[in-house]
Design goal:
There is one protein chain. The protein has about 400 residues and is mainly alpha-helical. The protein has 16 helices and no strands.
Length: about 400
């Protein structure tokens, strides 16, 4: 492992305050924010296109625009988080998220629909995992892996709760009214939780102890950071495309819309289950070996979804396994900076690392929808994604930090 083990104390971190309200609040808000802003869309997409006449590629492109915006807003947000903490950022982001969902729900035209998603992108950048990870990393210090695991365990339930919930609402309501209901849930739970629970004093950044003397600029220009960025970007592209493509894949395999929504929900349950083992994995593996193993596992599960035609219960089981891998990949990205370069500039470095990953995630839903026709369907799309995941696995071999050799 690198010179900073995942749960190893560093000077100045051992006595930091761990506000009691923060962790349960972030567990709640990550579940709800991911559920409303992200996982509701693939469930509602068929009804949106049927009711409006917009193409699936166009509607998915609007959704992808939100992810693009979240990538760009993440960079300045990371700097603000390092200096001031998450209270204002995440509270404002929650308010923007509610407004965005309301605009989406009442959009009279595709242009307004897209505008709503652009605003949702700002909300995503201010409320989803990156700012939550920055908050937990600074407040929990040497206990950050355990705290990050708790937050992502809850976040992993977002699709488990909201994919089936959205499907049930859509069976009785139009897609517009469904989004109105979800906006009310978002407003009632995330805005007060962020406003009230994140007011604790923001502790000062700890001194640099890993690769001492390295500035964020020199880290970002280094070979390890560049290869790590390429690895996580390519892996992120495949995982985002798999999640958004799971529903249409299940439909092509003969599943009903409700069953496909449940498969997506159980994929989220798999994320939660998978994350329970990450802390143990982090203690017993080196950083590079862990990166290679997890991304390689993603290529295997994606390939399996591509080549296994059924029956439906087998595909659902593969969706759960895919979720288990994806859950660990989320924690892998959350700890990638601290495992290699410490926590001092976590907000900035993690934002720079996450930006291309988020961009890839933004393009992934659109790319999957666009390639399904030329390639002959979603099974073929998943096959191409498996090849991309193999390439990411090979890149991961070069992500070791020379000045801080892994415990391999």
């Amino acid at each position: 492992m690198t010179s900073l083990d995942a749960d190893e104390a560093v000077p100045g971190e051992g006595s930091r305050s761990q506000p009691r309200a923060v962790l349960p609040a972030l567990c709640l808000t990550q579940t709800v924010s991911w559920g409303v802003l992200y996982y509701a869309f693939p469930v509602l997409l068929p009804e949106i296109t049927a009711a409006t006449g917009w193409s699936g590629a166009a509607a998915t492109g609007a959704f992808s625009s939100a992810l693009l915006v979240s990538a760009f807003t993440g960079l300045p947000i990371g700097r603000i988080l390092d200096r001031r903490g998450p209270h204002a950022v995440m509270t404002t982001g929650s308010v923007l998220g509610v407004g965005a969902v309301l605009i989406i729900s009442v959009a009279p035209s595709f242009a307004v629909f897209t505008t709503g998603w652009l605003l949702a992108g700002v909300a995503m950048g201010a409320t989803l995992y990156p700012p939550a990870f920055a908050a937990v990393t600074r407040w929990w210090g040497p206990s950050r892996v355990r705290a990050l695991t708790v937050v992502t365990l809850a976040g992993g339930l977002a699709s488990t709760v909201f994919a089936p919930l959205t499907a049930v609402l859509a069976e009785h309501l139009s897609w517009r009214v469904t989004y109105l209901v979800l906006a009310a849930v978002l407003a009632g739970l995330t805005v007060p939780a962020h406003a009230l629970a994140l007011r604790a004093p923001w502790p000062p950044a700890p001194p640099v102890v890993t690769n001492a003397g390295s500035s964020p600029r020199s880290v970002v220009r280094g070979r390890s950071f560049l290869l790590l960025s390429a690895t996580l970007t390519l892996s992120g592209f495949t995982m985002y495309a798999v999640v958004i493509g799971l529903v249409p894949l299940m439909l092509e395999r003969g599943a009903s819309a409700t069953t496909a929504a449940w498969a997506l929900g159980l994929c989220g349950a798999g994320q939660t289950l998978g994350r329970t083992v990450y802390a143990s994995l982090a203690r017993h593996t080196g950083t590079t070996a862990r990166t290679v193993a997890l991304i390689g596992s993603g290529s295997i599960t994606t390939a399996a979804l591509s080549v296994v035609p059924g029956p439906i219960p087998v595909l659902v089981a593969l969706a759960v396994l895919t979720g288990m891998v994806r859950g660990n990949l989320t924690l892998l990205q959350a700890t990638a900076v601290t495992d290699r370069w410490g926590t001092t500039h976590y907000g900035r470095l993690s934002a720079l690392l996450a930006a291309p990953v988020t961009l890839a995630g933004a393009l992934a839903p659109w790319a999957g929808a666009a390639l399904a026709g030329p390639l002959g369907g979603y099974p073929q799309v998943f096959g191409a994604l498996a090849v991309a995941a193999v390439a990411a696995t090979l890149l991961a071999l070069g992500t070791r930090v020379p000045a801080a050799p892994d415990r391999e």
